[in-house]
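Open question from group meeting: does this chain pack into something compact, or does most of it stay loose? Before anyone orders reagents, we agreed to write out a predicted structure and look at it together. Recording both the input and the output here so the notebook holds the full record.
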Amino acid sequence: SLAIVVPAMLSGASQAVLFNPIDRALYLRVIMRRNLFHIDNWANPFQGFANAGLHRMLSAGGYLCWQEVTIRALAGRTDNEVLERVSVGLIAGSIVGFSLNGLQLVKYRLWTEGSGGFLEVTKRLQREAGFRIFLRGTYVSILRDSVFGLTYEVLRGHRSKEDKAKKNYASNHFLRDTAAASVACWTSAPINYCRNIMYGVPPRSCPLGVVALLHNLFVESMQGGNTWIQRYTIMNSRLNLGWATLRVGVGVAVGQTLFEYYKTKYS
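Structure tokens returned:
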């Protein structure tokens, strides 16, 4: 219903405006293999924003929609809270991962190529590799978003009306949502890395699979450093474990908080 869709989309749109420059810089850091604060990562911070903003609104808003729909559908059907949270995360995550993969691929190509609008890049991709290019990484997106959703929902726990009426509910659960999303970011980071690399491969080339990409990452980190700290540094620079974790943790918590606010405002 509109009571769910409107607050969810407003929350997603708010996140798009707030976090697009950071998301673009984090992606370019991985693909171009340079420091996060390299000036080129932050040049034209809203480049491709029309598509990126639409994707962020639909992905963040879509997840919140399916989260709420699934919670309501499962209400009273099981006494197992963990099973309920697992179901919510898997259903919401897999639907969003599958339905928005093509849009996300175009978003990342816009960020990488640095020229052209959404329609121009979409047509160029289709011309070079056919419509199959928009299916690239679909199974990885489903896997990544499912792992993220499952971890996030289980760790953040169930929120009853009694909980929401308690003093300091907003601040306490903002911190819990931030922590839950941060852990979810860590657990899904290797899969997210594989997806980013697949999106960055030239249209006519065939990207490596998840196992091969993770194997290459492991070999690179082991051979690139003499100590475990050096190896971790290499691994972290590829997986974005530090900055990406902070951005995702705060971003998801902000989105969840805004969703609850807009639900109350427009109910």
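Observations to bring back to the group:
Residues 169-200 form the longest helix (32 residues).
Residues 17 and 194 are 26 Å apart (CA to CA).
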